[in-house]
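User: what does the whole thing look like in 3D?
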Amino acid sequence: MSRFRWQFLIGLVLVLGISLTACVAPAAPAGDGGDMADSGDMMPEVMLPDDAAEDQILNVVHEGGCGSGPFPGIDYGSPCNFGHMFMPPFLVDIDGNVMPGLFTTDWEVNEDLTEYIFHIQEEAVWSDGKSITAQDAIDWWNYIFHSDRNSWPRNFVMGAVKGIDEFADGTTETIAGLTALDDKTLKVELWRSEGSLPQLWGFREAAPARFDQYADLLERADEFADAREWRGAMAERFFQGENAADLIVSGPFKPVHLSPEPDAIYRFVRNPNWWGEPTYLDGIEATTIRDFQTILLMFENDEIDLALQLAGPSSVLLRQNQPEAFREIPVSAFWAMYFLTEQEPVDDVNLRRALMSAIEWEKVAEIAWEGEQAPSNAGSPMSSAYQCFDANFQPYPFNPERAKEFLAESKYGPTGETVPKIRILTGGSDPPRIRAAQIVQEMWRVNLGIENVEIKNAESEFVDGEGLVAMQVTSGGSFLPRPGYLLEAVAHTRGGAHQSWTKYTEEGWDEEIDALLSMDPGSADYCDRSLAMLEKFTDAALVIPTGYIRGWYQVQPWVGGYGQSRISFWHTMTETYLKER
Amino acid sequence: MAQNESTAELARDLSQETNTLKTRGLWSDAFRRLVRNRLSIIGLVIFVLLFVTAIFGPFMAPYPYMLQDLERVAEGPSRDYLLGTDAIGRDMLSRLLWGARTAGIVAIISTVFSLLLGMILGGIAAYIGSWADWLISRAIDVTMSIPQLLFASLIAATFRKPVADFVDMMYAQTGMEFFSTPTYVDLVVVFGALALIQWPGYARMIRGQILSLREKEFVEAARAVGVSQFIVLLRHLIPNALGPLIVMVTFGFGGAIVAESGLSYLGVGVQPPQASWGNMIFENQDSWRYRPWLVAMPGFTIAIVSVGINFLGDGLNDALNPRQAES
Amino acid sequence: MTRYISMRVLIIIPTLFLTLMIVFLLGYLGPIDPVDIKRAQWAQQGVFMSEEQLAEERRSLGLDKPFFVQFGAYLGNLLQGKFGYSYIDSAPIWPRIKKALPVSGALALGAMLIMVFIGIPLGIIAARFHNTRLDYAIVGGSLFVWSIPTYVLVPVTLMTFVLWLDLMNVPRGWKGVWHASFVLGAAIISLRTLANVIRQTRGGILEVLQNDYVRTARAKGLTEFLVMARHVARNALIPVVTSLGLMVDDFMWQSVFLEVAFNFPGLGRLFQQGLTSRDFDMIYGVALFTAGMTMLLNLIVDLVYPLLDPRVAYD
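Assistant: Here's the predicted 3D structure for the full assembly of 1223 residues, as structure tokens:
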């Protein structure tokens, strides 16, 4: 009798288990996006390319979060960027050419590059039909870059504009250098020459939004204790789901739904009042997924059209299977290890040179990033994305003999055993970066006999703590792919917002870099002078570039008309369409 | 069920009180029961193996744990590298063996730390009672209700510097070679973090044991006779609490090894190039689809060890808890 | 009894306060803050900030203020029902937690159901066939699953179901409790705690079977089934109920990894996001809620306890 009861119980468990498994098994594919707002009826008829698919909603996945709508500096490179919500003054194409954006490209500039006159596209209107004026742009910039909101991109978007320092510290309420000559003409006066202002204004962060949508917040200014509360109040306005539809935009797509994580729903439809060439896409559906493996899986399973930005070892397998899916974003930056030259033992230039010469550059990139990032050109910080790039400029090719000679000449020589401890700070637990540091450590051990190297994640983890770190692993480079900006970032000691990380300078360096920044980048001796300055810089051996950063978009084969920009992670979504699969 | 006071239990307590010879019999009984359970034998073997490896593993390792062979990166098993190499050409076998030492140290020391902390605080709470009990009980509640993942990772991130500074100060003052190397800092921080999340379990149990002992008649009787309550409690606490304590410690060992791997996964555990099973998984996780063995090897090691320890714990539980032994 | 309950409820408030303060202090003392994270994110895309700019950003976010000023400000906002704003994307915290709570709650409940309907029967079987191969297989198998880290288990499962078996798409967002991804997710979470339930049940039954009243019941000639149902099962449930309180934390651990990979908009995902980007207000908000839930569940367990076990009573 009792035996029978037990069998009954086991049977019950089995049935339960099977039925639960059955719940899992008949999994229906998760189709979504059908609830996209249909705004096609008010649009002009769009002539789609012949191979276009019926459904023209682009599915995008991004690893980082979406920021709060038009707020610059928060949603840098985020899925909201895919919406092309706000047109920046200019667009920069993959070859670095300035293309018209909100402004036309027929700007006028004076001889010494300190005064620009820009023209806003005549037909440019906001999504509510109102014309976009020069005063709109100025109002927005005065609002968003104000010290209360303290939007950080101020420094590179407006850094050269007259009166920016007074404005930034709150002395003035407006940026003095900006004047609206008429509705569609903007005059910009600079305090120093700047040959690349149009490129800088090709950054998304320069895009103006509608100040009057936030103007009432100014009346409540005393409610906000700091910039975060300001930004919070702005975010609440259009970043809470459906209320995103009220956001007035200037680009080809307008949001209908923006929900921050955990939902991470970002939906865009055509802007009915878009003033440029009509787009092929009816809408964009974007989301954030904070797991590379999952994004990869979705891409492999053909669930998404576009992924940003699967880089590093996780995407090795995808690259093997679908190499044509990868589109490179030229990033003018490098993975760097900076020498803190005031610290022992790297205060000795010959030791630094020895350390650089003992690195097998190709191998570092190959092993640490599994070939996903480009190897350094023998220790030059300048990647091939830069103007004036010269493949023959190789300051420290791998050469153990030369490395040993340098070591013997240094005050810590003659052999590796006498070199005091070198402390490397990786600043994070990203496996490839730690790997790069470990590989370099091993190369020094093998080629120079330096055993005493310590690697840590955070400065606080060093036994001796702050101030004794000899090298810092980070990334370096410049926001524009021009040598002047690179040199400013790595070697200029101007101080303030422009303090370089090496904090090292020599007689005449600052002046030469200033001269390069003020030069017209198209002039004949620009590259020669840049490279000469770069040679001085690399001769001092201040930075070890362990590899050049390469950004990637993953694009499915059925996405047509897709192009990427050289800067600002801007895509040319205006010509993008989905082909029949 | 501490509240369960059967007469049999009372009788057993009394007999322990009077007959020490019988106590020895109790332990050999327990051992007999342990050995009879095949699973716990397996667990015991794994447990012993772990500690043998922790002590002798590094001497058996064919290569130093951080030696890189950049010519032979991410290879499968070969004659030179019996279990292959990782992404930067380090011998997997050697790192697994060194990892056993890390795991052993982390398990022992974090358990000892948390046990001591738990025993002292639990003892104080139960013995003094009133405000001390209230305070410590609240501390237990607070610690147990903070998400452990958050708590441990925040502790590990926060206390690294103070610990590092302390070690440095000791080196400056004593000049002892022991303090010159910072590798211990990682370990100490990890022990500290794990101990701080594990102590409430021990404290709660000790407190419960003492409180229930207090109610027992022989303790009341001893107090009436004039014997110090403290001594009586101590004498009874040890035989009564030892069984559950051993079981709890065993599970704590397994838990510590798994928890260390969790901390390493978040990047706040034992730092590279130091080898721990957790950071071996972490370092190789982004290539698991095309080099699954790099993740699988440390993963399986952790799995086997923690299963073994849990078998042993279960076995000890059955063996040391005589009420449920015979079936 | 009423007095006991009100005391227990009242004590939750200072305990929560202490919890919050500890978490806040650890965040304050920690070496990394949201500005460091932002700097790294921007640098990844070729935009670089100097030390001075970082300091300015910290100042404008109020991160440079002393501990008690920051903590006081946070508490003040909390008393007004404000949970603050994200340091990273500026959006307010409370609406997110409000959205995430039901998702995490449903996941936990689903996992608990699976545990009860699979774990307890398996525990009973293991106890019944004590020290046989079946027992070893159940206990050993569940322990083996327990010791596989969730961050390994989750991607492997996802890969298996999506790519190799091709049974489903990658879950995207919340599709409700009847969706396959939910069942799969709840199953994964429950797998990790299953070992605990099986062991508790098994141990509980083994213990109860020894008791006199079971022997008496058997002696009275009751059938085995009735003995199990009436005397054994109820008592064996006690340890399971006790361990429920402890499971909240375990769920939190699991759901962090699960929700990120499965794209469930739950607390675990918020927590992971907060922790990796040091988005302090997010961390504090999530910690407050999970701590509160843990305490509440422990309270409920304590109150249910006397109903299950008449020997326990509160003054």
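In plain terms: The domain at 94-313 of chain C is CATH 1.10.3720.10 (MetI-like fold). Chain C has a mean pLDDT of 81.
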